[in-house]
Amino acid sequence: MKKFATLAVLAAISGGAYAQSSVTLFGILDANARYVKNGDLKLKSLGSGGINTSRIGFRGVEDLGSGLRAGFWLESGINVDTGSSSDTSRFFNRRSTVSLLGSFGEVRLGRDFTPTYTGYADYDVFGDNGVAASGKFDAPLGVTRDSNATAGSGQGTRLGNQIMYLLPSNLGGLYGRAAAAAGEGTAGNKYIGGRVGYGAGPLDVSVAYGQYEVAPALGEDKFKVANAGGSYDFGVVKVMGYYTQNEFVNQKLVSYSVGALVPFGQSQIKAAYTHANAKGRTVTNASVDANDANQFALGYIYNLSKRTALYGTGVYVKNKAGASFVATGGPALLAGTDRKSTGGEVGIRHTF
Q1: What CATH number does the domain containing 133 carry?
Q2: 310-333 burial, b for 16+ CB within 10 Å, e for fewer?
Q3: Does residue 104 belong to any structural domain of this protein?
Q4: Which of 128, 214, 257, 327 is deepest in the core (most CB within 10 A)?
């Protein structure tokens, strides 16, 4: 109830500020009927976030004069199927930042995506959403890192306590960002990373690298992540792909994906192939060399209007050896069962 009371107060405050055109209330509601079969286990459910994560937020910019602007962004993830927050420990779990912007670029403080996460998610045909989300292959290798990072993620997704700098947008297509997250006296709560890229016309390419501090008791204090990605829009089809690597001590998880978006009329077809390849040994000296997986995904979107769309997505995941990657939203694989995972969902998305 406290979270909803907070939202009501913010809405009331923002209502008095609507005379300022720079303040915006925005959101996405995305719900679907989902079926996932992992090995011998099946699950039917009503899910949230099939092609976009459901959310509600407030953002705004104030002109300070002399080319300077101040900006803020507060964004909370929600589960449409239950009405609950997508994060029980943070209300504005998706983003909570305040910024100073000018000809120099932007200095942004607070919780936001890490540069390394955007370096591969921007080139995922499915946007790291729904049953076909590529985030399932972004494993943390059994390592507990930053308590402010998104749990279960290797590249980090979002991170609190960030100080981020973003290049200005007038550099002829060159873009970039660098970030550092403060430890604030807690072991494991540090991150440093960056991303640089070039985007002009139909072409967009980038590379990113970052390091997380992890618990010193594991004997190594750096969890390293790196990726590269790109896309090219031919008009009749947009192709994209990425390569990522998560590394800790003697263990690596490499994944890559290639996909395409084909627009026609009010519709769009999406298809992607993703491969994950584990290498080396864990901190307990167990070999993971054979723990590989392949994913095939196909999706369809039909736009009823500029703000409302119907969609469907299907995915097939084949694991090898001890790998246990599954379609998002389903049960975990049981030991000794078929290592295949299949899933599908049909839903509706509305933006405001």
Answers
A1: 2.40.160.10
A2: ebbbbbbbbbeeebbbbbbbbeeb
A3: yes
A4: 327
Q: Which of 114, 91, 173, 142 is nearest to 248 (CA)?
A: 142
For 144, the token pair is 């507990």
> Tens of pLDDT along 97-144?
999 999 999 999 999 999 999 999 999 999 999 999 988 887 656 555
Q: Which helix (H) or strand (E) holds 223?
A: strand 223-233
Instruction: For the chain, state the CA radius of gyration.
Output: 21
Any residues with CB less than 8 A from the CB of 303 and at least 6 apart, and which? Answer: 266, 267, 268, 309
Q: Answer whether residue 17 is part of any domain.
A: no
Distance CA 114, CA 124 (A): 16
Paired strand residues for 349: 30, 309
Residue 1 lies in a domain: no
Distance CA 18, CA 12 (A): 10
The Cα 189–Cα 262 span in angstroms is 41
Given a contact cutoff of 8 angstroms between Cβ atoms, the answer to whether 37 and 333 are in contact is no
Range of the domain at 311: 26-351
Q: Is residue 15 part of a domain?
A: no
How many domains are there within the chain? Answer: 1
Spell out the residues 6+ positions from residue 234 whose beta carbon is closer than 8 angstroms to its own.
202
Give the DSSP letter string of 55-123.
Answer: EEEEEEEEEEETTEEEEEEEEEEEETTTTEES-SS-SS-SEEEEEEEETTEEEEEEEEE-HHHHHHHTT
* Model confidence, pTM: 0.86
Longest alpha-carbon distance in the chain = 66
Residue 207: exposure state from Cβ atoms within 10 A (0-12, 13-18, ≥19): middle
Bridge pairing between strands 340-351 and 105-113 = unpaired
- Do the beta carbons of residue 114 and residue 210 sit within 8 Å? yes
CA 165 to chain centre: 20
Three-state DSSP state, 205: strand
